[in-house]
Inverse folding.
């Protein structure tokens, strides 16, 4: 269906168009640069609801021309071109001149202040009088209602492909499982591949996750070959070779890869035809990145969530690469291209940072840099493929020579410090990992994943645990935090900062775009303390954008346009540059700049574009207080002199005479299953809890009776949210064989939220954390099912958050 322009003659954008032209006419400004400004605004306004971007001064691929504007969608596909003319031009003559120069006539609007001519499919579709608003709206409707057949098919194919991916993946999984049972050649190949994956990515990786890797490869490998026109990719890439070996074993007997994927030919063809209209490699990168995101939204939302799949907008990438180059020169007298400056992107994604870095390095120094001093890791198969292709093509585009990129490793960056790997897929991949491990890294650059909290333990989608890195976070950031709740420190981006602080060596730069919660939230006070100890200068550009926090602040609604990542990440974002100089002593100098919390994404990008790099940002120096609070502007000077309500230091101290109002304190009960253990009606609650306990005890028995002692927990126990709600501690109770039984006396009255009184089933197994509430509210014998509201036994129940 065609796109429908929703503007009306009374819209502000339309009215501004005519007022701007009138203002220009009044001062005699009729030249092209002046009059096209007015049309630019109304065209941009009309395009916005479709998610299109109006790119000014755009050069079509393989054309030696430049148009005044191009409408492009998020995939990088071009919907139409715009060419403006001034009041003095004879429009018909100017159009013919452009046609003679080879301007594409698929869908282009030639516009002068009083007239517009729309060409589509090589002929005039509309010749409109723009002196009245209706003529303007007619021209926009015809121009923006057109879709090229290839693009039309592409969008339909991507939408349907996304919907069909789960069924296709299920069909492939059935083929793999059947081959595991019946194909003698496949079984050992697959088992060997599982072992390789566990060594490279995660020693606890399930066979199911490895099966998903094979499915990803089968469904998308054709696109890598055709979109990037690299038919030899699966033969040259060290990881693709290993996977192809397993797939050869899978397809050696009863399974035909060609026949199975033949059902997808029209989808592949539509995507390939659309990609064929894109000739610039950077646009191909954007195109395939977006297709890839759509693939994962259909294929595995859990994988995308666990790994925090959020790809960095190009303005951010450009700013960070330029800034690292400038900060290296400011603090060390070196540039990115200097010999000995090893660069590592530990979470490379699809390679945008290294591609941009290759563009920044002088061509005369690039060959050595590419072969020896650029490094990156990726833990997921598909982005690994895309990154390898992107980086290798960027090198070829700049040098005219093809060379495989030896710096990319398929591995989990955090897992590499665990010291458990004996081989990473292949000898070549292992050698690359060892070379990186021994490299004197001077720059760490990238976008670490950030995803602090698992939505639902039943999803079996927890953030990874890492013995070494987690211990470092616990022994530093968590140990030195005064916060009671430190859950936020389990976020992968926090681990990334800790890991980078340990990895960078005696001097260098760490540059991350990440969640901005570490700047001011209480639970990060220990992290702030150690960052100030570990580095000499810290630059933090706070880009705000926490939609949940600011969505209706001061009555102003904020939305997608206020976040630098759009809907992909609605949290606040910051860019941090951490500089370590080996001769520095004392705490770090902390430089900070924040955008207005109402600023739009484009305003933030404009700030970075106009500054160029971090050395030109208007920083202000922060002076942290003794509690390692960086943003102290809203705190009263005498706050530290006030009498504490309670204090961890006082509770730990042998001196009980320290001045606090309370000697003891606690969090409220944290159940992790409120819907099961709270209710206004104690009889309804009792019935529900009895059902939950029955289900739970069955799971304990199933786990104890399992035949395979190495079985995965989630393969054994019930995962239905309607029957049980799993959490970390409840899992541990099953593993320990802890049964439980229902007790009337465990139903207590609780303050669920301020002024909301409910009944709670107060129990150490069904409540994840009870803290010291058994001490504050000791057990009493009562009959809560018949107790009246306000009785003494009710009032002794716990007060909860």
């Amino acid at each position: 269906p065609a796109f429908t322009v929703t503007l009306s003659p009374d819209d502000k954008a339309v009215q501004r168009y005519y007022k701007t032209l009138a203002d220009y006419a009044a001062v005699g400004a009729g030249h092209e640069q002046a009059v096209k400004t007015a049309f630019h605004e109304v065209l941009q306004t009309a395009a916005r609801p479709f998610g299109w971007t109006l790119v000014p001064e755009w050069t079509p691929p393989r054309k030696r021309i430049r148009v005044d504007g191009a409408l492009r969608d998020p995939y990088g596909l071009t919907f139409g071109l715009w060419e403006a003319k001034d009041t003095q031009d004879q429009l018909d003559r100017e159009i013919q001149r452009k046609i003679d120069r080879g301007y594409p006539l698929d869908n282009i609007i030639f516009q002068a202040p009083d007239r517009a001519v729309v060409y589509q499919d090589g002929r005039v579709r509309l010749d409109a009088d723009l002196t009245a608003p209706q003529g303007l709206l007619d021209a926009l409707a015809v121009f923006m209602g057109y879709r090229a057949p290839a693009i039309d098919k592409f969008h339909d194919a991507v939408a349907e492909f996304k919907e069909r991916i789960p069924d296709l993946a299920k069909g492939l999984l059935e083929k793999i499982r059947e081959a595991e049972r019946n194909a003698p050649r496949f079984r050992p190949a697959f088992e060997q591949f599982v072992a390789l994956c566990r060594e490279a990515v995660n020693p606890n990786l399930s066979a199911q996750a490895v099966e998903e890797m094979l499915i990803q490869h089968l469904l998308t490998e054709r696109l890598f070959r055709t979109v990037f026109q690299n038919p030899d990719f699966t033969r040259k890439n060290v990881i693709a070779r290993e996977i192809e070996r397993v797939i050869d074993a899978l397809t050696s007997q009863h399974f035909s890869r060609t026949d199975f994927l033949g059902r997808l030919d029209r989808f592949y063809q539509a995507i390939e035809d659309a990609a064929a209209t894109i000739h610039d490699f950077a646009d191909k990168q954007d195109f395939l990145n977006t297709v890839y995101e759509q693939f994962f939204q259909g294929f595995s939302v859990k994988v995308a969530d666990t790994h925090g799949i959020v790809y960095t907008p190009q303005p951010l990438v450009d700013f960070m690469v330029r800034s690292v180059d400038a900060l290296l020169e400011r603090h060390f007298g070196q540039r990115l291209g200097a010999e000995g400056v090893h660069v590592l992107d530990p979470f490379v994604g699809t390679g945008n940072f290294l591609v941009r870095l290759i563009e920044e390095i002088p061509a005369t120094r690039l060959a050595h840099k590419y072969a020896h001093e650029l490094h990156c890791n990726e833990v997921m198969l598909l982005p690994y493929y895309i990154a390898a292709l992107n980086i290798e093509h960027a090198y070829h585009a700049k040098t005219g020579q093809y060379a495989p990129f030896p710096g990319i490793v398929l591995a989990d960056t955090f897992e590499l410090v665990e010291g458990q790997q004996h081989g990473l897929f292949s000898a070549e991949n292992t050698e690359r990992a060892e070379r990186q491990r021994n490299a004197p890294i001077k720059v760490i650059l990238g976008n670490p994943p950030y995803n602090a909290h698992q939505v639902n333990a039943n999803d079996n989608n927890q953030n990874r645990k890492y013995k070494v890195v987690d211990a470092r976070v616990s022994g530093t950031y968590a140990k030195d935090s005064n916060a009671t709740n430190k859950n936020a420190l389990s976020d992968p981006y926090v681990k990334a900062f800790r890991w980078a602080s340990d990895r960078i060596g005696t001097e260098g730069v760490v540059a991350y775009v990440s969640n901005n919660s570490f700047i001011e939230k209480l639970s990060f006070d220990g992290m702030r303390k150690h960052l100030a100890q570990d580095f000499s200068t810290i630059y933090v550009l706070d880009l705000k954008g926490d939609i949940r926090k600011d969505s209706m602040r001061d009555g102003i609604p904020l939305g997608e346009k206020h976040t630098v990542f759009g809907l992909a990440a609605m949290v606040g974002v910051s860019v941090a540059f951490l500089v370590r100089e080996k001769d520095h002593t004392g705490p770090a100098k902390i430089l900070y700049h924040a955008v207005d919390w109402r600023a739009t994404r484009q305003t933030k990008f404009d700030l970075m574009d106009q500054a160029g790099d971090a050395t030109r940002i208007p920083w202000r120096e922060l002076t942290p207080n003794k509690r390692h609070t960086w943003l102290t502007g809203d705190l009263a000077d005498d706050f530290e002199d006030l009498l504490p309500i309670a204090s961890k230091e006082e509770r730990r101290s042998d001196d009980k005479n320290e001045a606090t109002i309370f000697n003891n304190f606690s969090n409220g009960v944290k159940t992790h299953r409120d819907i099961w253990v709270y209710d206004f009606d104690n009889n309804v609650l009792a019935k529900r809890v009895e059902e939950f306990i029955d289900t739970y005890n069955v799971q304990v028995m199933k786990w104890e009776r399992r035949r395979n002692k190495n079985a995965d927990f989630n393969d054994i126990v019930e995962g239905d949210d309607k029957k049980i709600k799993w959490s970390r501690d409840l899992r541990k109770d099953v593993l320990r064989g802890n049964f439980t039984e229902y007790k009337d006396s465990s139903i207590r009255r609780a303050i669920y939220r301020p002024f909301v009184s409910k009944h709670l089933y107060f129990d150490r197994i069904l409540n994840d954390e009870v803290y010291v509430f058994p001490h504050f509210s000791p057990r009493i014998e009562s009959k809560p099912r018949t107790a009246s509201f306000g009785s003494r036994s009710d009032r002794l129940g716990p007060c909860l958050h």
User: Anything to note?
Assistant: Residues 105 and 122 are 5 Å apart (CA to CA). The chain has 31 helices and 18 strands.
